[in-house]
Hints:
Blueprint: H1 5-15, E1 19-20, E2 23-24, E3 27-28, E4 45-47, E5 51-52, H2 65-86, H3 93-106, H4 108-112, H5 115-121, H6 133-138, E6 142-143, E7 146-147, H7 149-163
Antiparallel strand pairs: 1-2, 3-4, 4-5, 6-7
Amino acid sequence: MKISNNGINILKQLEGCVKVGDKHIIYDDQTGRAVGANAPLPRGATIGYGHLIKSGENFRNGITEAQATALLRADVAVAESIVQNVITGPLSQNQFDALVIFAYNIGAKNFANSTVVKYVNNPKFHSAVYPTLESAWRAWNKSGGREMSGLNNRRNTEWVLFNAVS
């Protein structure tokens, strides 16, 4: 399976972007603030829909919507792959999309080792810490040890998608 166009559109909404006119511009992932054209790139410099700029990449002139979508699809391939590799049972398209969006946010290693995967792979699984799949899913709502409303909103969107009838 691959993430659907609907899944990509939801991921775009969740990731957000910074644009000037019709161009995506570089922003600081932590603050969401645009980085000036001549300013040094901060740690976490990002463009498009959550693409962390790697050494050697130059996006100083901004990118188009098509380029931003292409970067997102390339970046999301890692999350698609981990979901394909660690989930053992059948999934609906919405479930796959939700799991890919979740894995994209928490990282492949965290996803692979998560209680969420254990529950999805074995509905009879039981955790004393997270008594349900939903509680395990929603537990990924912290950054720096603090609960974040943005992550709560993101987990809610993913959870609703996971349970939507395809």
